Amino acid sequence: MNRVRVVAATAVVLGVAVVAGTRFQEARGLGPSAPQQTAAAPASQVTVVPAAVPVDGARDLAVATSPDVRAPISLMPATPQATAALESRRPDASVVQDAPHTAPQLTTASILSAADLVGAATDPVTSDTASPTAPLDESLQAELAACSIWVVVTPAAGAMLDTSIYAPCDRGADVRVEHAGLTFDARVGDDGQLMMMVPALIDEATVTVTFADGRSQSDTTFVTDLRQVERVALQWTGPADLSLHAYEFGAQFGEDGHIHAGHPQVPGAEGHGFLTVLGDPEIVGGHRVQVYSYPSDQTGQAGSVALEIEAPITEASCGKPLLAESIEMSGAAAARSRTIRLDMPACDGSGGYVVLPGVLPDLQIAALR
């Protein structure tokens, strides 16, 4: 099947406006979760990648495309008089008659016998039984404790964060997960648990989980191998369905070195990087993330990894502007963030994909000696 590839030519048919800015991870907010520390971004600049030409040849991972791509990327104190008026309206005490057979008033200091009362006998009233601060029943305390939220984060190979979320009273709830600028939405399982691997973007890594009602919990760990990983993240908000593709050392579409959501590889695969897909596509309007990682300390190969962004032309995306953000991290260098805007082609019903090469810089991999 054909795909539409955007290449550098005359700026008429299709363009992508990339606002480039350097900052050290900016956390995204929901509820009370606090943003993580970021570096100030420099003055922004605009880069345009224009023009589109159809790509020849069948593509097994894409559907038929339409070469018709036209849209540009581009919140009184009482007075004495008032008090006197109120006093004047009180009824005269001499007029008020006591009701015959009025029972003595019960207080915590009055213990009366049953013979003094009209009706059935009563137990004495003590300060203990009148207290509103009696301790909770042990079984209720245990039940409340069981409804707590636990988040456990531990470091894993490949500068990853092994993240476990336990929320036994929030089965099936949607949560927002944040780490150093990465934001995605996920859903707690029917067993009250949610397990995931999150790519680390900073050494002292905190993962924060926030529920729709504002409750949140977080955990922090330290990552020791972050500088040995080349990493690029692409994140966006639905209903768009973007995807990140990596072509390792000259690999072509569909080959073993072509890393994408359908062929993500795994951490530790010899000679390959790996792709992490985060965010539940079933959550309407949810945040989603794809992160490509290459462990540069585990390879004997040298060369470059080309990165592309694909955007399918669907009824949910056609004729609309799509916004995404990339976060690029290389060794000890400060992470770099880019905002990407893409005005999708008009809705003509033919579907297809828009492919954006060159928007993200190639990763340069040095051979391990």
What profile does the largest beta sheet have?
Answer: 7 strands, mixed
Shape: globular
The proportion of residues forming helix, as a percent range, comes to under 10%
Task: Assess the beta-strand content as a share of residues.
Answer: 35-45%
User: Counting H and I runs of at least 4 residues, what is the number of helices?
Assistant: 3
Give a structural overview.
The protein contains three helices and 21 strands. It has 369 residues and is mainly beta. The chain has one domain. The strands form four sheets. Strands 1, 4, 13, 14, 17, 20 and 21 form a seven-stranded mixed β-sheet that branches. It has a seven-stranded antiparallel β-sheet with strand order 3-2-19-18-12-16-15, with no helix packed on it. A hairpin with a 4-residue loop joins strand 10 and strand 11 (216-222). The two termini are 41 Å apart. The model is unreliable at 6-58, 60-78, 85-104, 106-122 and 124-131 (pLDDT under 50).
